[in-house]
Design a protein that fits this description.
Blueprint: H1 9-23, H2 30-37, H3 41-53, E1 57-60, E2 63-66, H4 68-90, H5 96-106, H6 112-121, E3 145-146, E4 155-160, H7 163-166, H8 171-177, E5 185-191, E6 197-201, E7 204-208, H9 210-213, E8 217-219
Antiparallel strand pairs: 1-2, 3-8, 4-5, 4-8, 5-6, 6-7
Length: 220
């Protein structure tokens, strides 16, 4: 059972999902939550009802928003997740994909004391490995555009990999292997009418599918 003032991991996971959908500019509706968490719509409907009863969310015209209490819970969980990812990649040397999966477990059990110590050891990071802001760090993302808006021969620097791509099977492995990571610079070589793009990063030419090109955020 959760301690007083804490919530069941399922509530934490849903608040985190709502927070991240909003962060990615995705409509926060039950269908999107079901897709992100890979659960049935009836299960989402039941959980949304329970969360409303717990005063964690409000629902109006089908749109779901976090209450003050829900926002506070989401911020705590997202912060722990992103610090855990940073710790596992920077200190333990784990891959992006493994760190993402493991952080999904750690976020529910890390105490405030451990979270604070991990952040201190890491030098108070401001983003997760994918460039997403760590809540409470004071980080303000630079102005960025979507990769698919760039033209041929235009140079760019990867700024952020939105959470939506983190949940796409095989995507984190592809991006890490291709060095399409925050801070890496590249150049657009071509773009097909389908939205598929060919880019050069670190002297290597790679093809990026439309699902990724319309979501990867870059600075120019």
């Amino acid at each position: 059972m959760p301690n007083p003032g804490e919530h069941h991991p399922a509530f934490e996971e849903y608040c985190e999902c709502i927070f991240e959908l909003r962060e990615d500019d995705v409509d926060v509706i039950q269908a999107r939550i079901a897709e992100r968490l890979r659960v049935s719509r009836p299960s989402v409907s039941e959980m949304i009802k329970r969360m409303a009863e717990e005063s964690l969310i409000e629902v109006a015209a089908g749109r779901i928003t976090l209450t003050v209490e829900g926002e506070e819970l989401a911020v705590r969980v997202v912060r722990r997740h992103r610090i855990a990812e940073r710790f596992m990649t920077d200190v333990l040397g784990l891959s992006w994909s493994l760190a993402h999966r493991e952080a999904g477990r750690w976020e529910h059990v890390i105490s405030h004391e451990v979270e604070t110590a991990m952040s201190r050891v890491l030098g108070e990071p401001t983003t997760c490995p994918h460039g997403n802001p760590i809540p409470g760090s004071g980080y303000a993302p630079p102005p960025a555009v979507r990769l698919n808006t760039l033209g041929s021969d235009q140079a760019f620097t990867v700024s952020r990999i939105p959470e939506e791509l983190e949940f796409t099977p095989g995507m984190l492995e592809f991006l890490e292997k291709s060095h399409l990571v925050p801070g890496s610079s590249g150049t657009v070589r071509s773009q097909e009418t389908s939205g598929e793009m060919t880019v050069e990063v670190d002297g290597v030419t790679i093809t990026v599918d439309p699902f990724a090109t319309i979501r990867i955020l870059v600075t120019i």
